[in-house]
Design brief:
Chain B: Keywords: Signal. The complex is a heterodimer of chains A (321) and B (445). By secondary structure, chain A is mainly alpha-helical. Helix content of chain A is 71%, strand content 1%. In chain A, helix 6 runs parallel beside helix 12 and helix 9 crosses helix 11. Classes of the chains: A mainly alpha (321), B alpha/beta (445).
């Protein structure tokens, strides 16, 4: 539905790392101005297209969010000002859901980033079967999320025949009822498994763009592998880590399939995206769902612009870029 | 690139001409030829119906039937939008028992009572009375059941024999709990019960337990009764039974998951939909075929505790071909159709739980000997007008026929799932549930 429109912040927030150069200086003479006009004209269709595709649904969502509209009572649609927002902010659902979203998204991003870095460093070396290993490593990201959730539910985590419990039993540990007892861990585990390859790919690209000469010079100067990694590789990877975190957060905020298929929102796994789905398709309350959607977008924009930027400053020496 | 463009142009042309053509055929409906559009959920019995529609079209020249299969949620959205806008896209729709009385009362469905009564050959009195009651509002029948089900207790006879236990035909929940504890081992669970949150998952069996313990969702004034002592006692019983002798990881489990564990011989008992029996008796997919016994749903304070569900065919009030649509609905739910399914597709595929006469067809009785008698017995015994101890302001057993119920049931189920996992107490969960249920109840006043 329209409420699931991706947050419109994505291009803006990605700007610092995505565009290398500064905007061109103001054209002074006529031919230059004409060229600029042409350039703008060429960009226009794409711009209109993206405005139509993202902003019109968003405006419609804002409009819906001011309506009293239950799908099973189509004759009682009425304008009700900000009543839906009152429900969002005074009801018991929003804050716990925001917390779950932060916990699930945050831990999955951090874990998959760390694991991704680890595998990227391993794959950066030359060895026989490197291509095969790389392809295998990427596979989890290529599996459809719903299919992945079903595989985890039935083959990995099933309490009777699942492989994870079988492995636990072989080392003498008791079986774990994952969905019942550890729903948050289950979801974070699955999302980490799925997004590690994504993080790994970005970081691997970063590692491979590092100049070998610099590394050689470092080793000539007597730096050990750890010092080289800490002082040469990590600073080089900073931008890659930033973009991986940003894109990963945006994608993981929308994680839905494993929650719908495995935990059904119990035990602190009712993230904003699942809550939204519940309001729209189980509650059938279009107005309330739209209000939740609008608030989610606003929160996402806030997180993307302020929180992540502050977070990145930690990495940056003296705050310069 | 050029080739692609040309293909695109050709494709576009084809679509335009197809639209134009369908426009023509649409315009032609007023004369003789009618194309009915049937929107249906995509489950196997409906696919069988599509396979056999040729027979109907042959018997009724001039009427063609076009099937549109959808997921349940999509179907609901499509039909409500169609009815609300008066577009009349659909002539026949499949509607669950939960929604028939709601849609009927809203005036969205055609009242089928006169056309069913007038047709002697159709024999409307043959439809199982409780099902008919559940599909009627104020004496008007808005849909006909295509197939129906109740809930029964299924048990593994070998395990019972090995433990020296005997299952009575009408067990109480206390007896069942006792058996479950005796049969619960490290390898096999005593009983499988749904624990997956959802009004149609966890709360289908749990609501029947609540009712037989004397509880209910709402009293006659639409005041919620979720935190009442009876409701609490029932949920505590259910949660404790799951803890003591239930399957592991209950929050993962609903119909399909329990079915798998039963078929693999990992569980001794299962309380769930009666249609499960036909799958458990299929030797190609089940290890326990022929080893299962079937008895009435366990009770506590009521006489009977089975639920009642049916998938039904109805004609939207906006249909422009209501007469032809009614003809089709009657054909698909007739005695003749049942024989047709049996003779062409096999007797185990006859849609069960709709007509009494189904259970006297000799071939069907033979094919479904293990579970047909008990299904008929339970389905005739349940009372959808008052399934619990106290009168209720709606007709239906494991659901409340108000639009808000699926939301209420879903949210309370999530709270109960937390109690099953031990993250909260049943009392806390139901205290929160009471508020949710009361908010919905207030809207009915």
């Amino acid at each position: 539905m329209t409420t699931l429109t991706p947050p419109p912040t994505m291009p803006t927030a990605a700007t610092p790392a995505a565009t290398g150069g500064r905007p061109a200086t103001r054209p002074r003479n006529a031919p230059q101005r004409k060229k600029a006009r042409q350039a703008r004209a060429l960009v226009l269709p794409a711009l209109i297209f993206s405005v139509v595709m993202t902003q019109i649904p968003f405006l419609t969502t804002i409009y819906f969010s001011t309506l009293q509209w239950n799908q099973l009572r189509p004759d009682e649609i009425a304008f009700n000002w900000f009543k839906n927002y009152a429900v969002v902010f005074t009801g018991p659902d929003f804050l716990p859901s925001l917390m779950s979203t932060v916990i699930i998204t945050g831990s999955s991003v951090v874990l998959s980033l760390l694991l991704g870095l680890f595998f990227a460093i391993l794959l950066d070396r030359k060895f026989v079967g490197q291509g095969l290993a790389r392809t295998l490593m990427i596979t989890p990201f290529l599996v459809m999320p719903a299919a992945a959730a079903l595989i985890w539910k039935w083959s990995m985590l099933d309490v009777n025949v699942g492989m994870v419990n079988w492995a636990l039993n072989t080392v003498g540990l008791p079986s774990v009822a994952w969905n019942t007892d550890l729903p948050i861990v289950t979801i974070i585990m699955l999302l980490t498994w799925q997004y590690t390859p994504f993080m790994m790919l970005i970081l691997l690209a970063g590692l491979q763009s590092q100049s070998r000469e610099v590394l050689e010079a470092a080793s000539v100067d007597g730096a050990g592998p750890w010092r080289t990694f800490q002082w040469m590789t990590l600073p080089h990877l900073r931008q890659y880590i930033e973009i991986a975190t940003l894109l990963g957060s945006i994608m993981l905020l929308q994680a839905f399939d494993p929650i719908a298929i495995m935990t059904k929102g119990t035990g602190g796994t009712k993230t904003l995206s699942y809550l939204l789905y519940e309001r729209a398709f189980i509650g059938l309350d279009v107005g309330q769902a739209a209000a939740f959607g609008v608030v989610t977008v606003v929160v996402t924009i806030a997180v993307a612009t302020f929180a992540l930027r502050t977070l990145f400053k930690v990495f940056i020496n003296g705050g310069e870029r | 690139m050029l080739v692609k463009k040309r293909a695109l142009a050709v494709g576009a042309g084809l679509i335009i001409s197809a639209v134009a053509l369908s426009g023509c055929s649409g315009a032609g409906t007023s004369s003789k030829n009618v194309t009915l559009t049937l929107a249906t959920v995509n489950n196997p019995q409906m696919k069988d119906m599509e396979e056999l529609k040729g027979t109907f079209e042959k018997d009724n020249p001039g009427i063609k039937v076009n099937f549109v299969q959808m997921e349940e949620g999509d179907l609901r959205a499509a039909v409500t939008a169609d009815v609300a806008s008066g577009a009349g896209q659909y002539d026949v729709v499949t509607v669950g028992a939960y929604e028939v009385p709601q849609w009927g009362a809203q005036g969205w469905l055609k009242d089928l009572t006169p056309s069913l009564k007038d047709d002697k050959a159709y024999d409307v009195d043959d439809i199982l009375p409780p099902v008919r009651t559940a599909l009627s509002v104020d004496g008007k029948q808005y849909a006909v059941p295509f197939y129906g089900e109740s809930s029964i207790l299924m048990y593994n006879k070998e395990m019972f024999a090995a433990a020296g236990l005997t299952m009575p035909n009408e067990p109480t929940w206390q007896e069942v709990a006792g058996f479950a504890k005796k049969l619960n081992t490290a390898e096999t669970a005593g009983i499988c019960l749904r624990g997956k949150p959802g009004w149609g998952d966890l709360f289908a069996p749990l609501t029947t337990v609540v009712q037989t313990f004397g509880g209910t969702w709402y009293d006659e004034n639409w005041d919620a009764q979720v935190d009442s002592p009876e409701f609490t006692e029932a949920v505590n019983f259910y949660v404790d039974l799951l803890k003591d002798a239930g399957e592991k990881d209950p929050v993962s489990n609903s119909f399909t998951e329990c079915l798998n564990q039963l078929s693999a011989g990992k569980v001794a008992m299962w309380y769930d939909a009666s249609v499960a029996a036909s799958i458990l008796e299929d030797p190609t997919s089940s290890k326990v075929a022929g080893k299962m016994g079937y008895v009435h749903a366990p009770v506590n304070k009521t006489e009977e505790s089975g639920w009642l569900w049916s998938w039904n065919l109805a004609v939207p009030a906006t249909s422009k071909n209501a007469d032809a649509a009614t003809t089709f609905v009657k054909w698909a739910t007739s005695k003749k159709y049942q024989r047709l399914v049996g003779e062409t597709l096999g007797w185990t595929r006859v849609p069960p739980g709709a007509r009494t006469s189904t259970y006297s067809i000799p071939e069907y009785k033979e094919a479904a000997a293990a579970f047909a008698p008990i299904t008929l017995e339970v389905m005739n015994a349940v009372n959808p007008k008052q399934p619990g101890l106290n009168p209720q302001p709606w007709v239906g057993i494991q659901y409340v026929t108000i639009p808000e119920f699926q939301d209420v049931g879903n949210q309370v189920a999530q709270l109960v799932a937390d109690a099953i996992a031990g993250r909260s107490s049943v009392e806390d969960a139901l205290a929160k549930g009471q508020k949710i249920a009361q908010a919905a109840g207030d809207k009915q006043k």
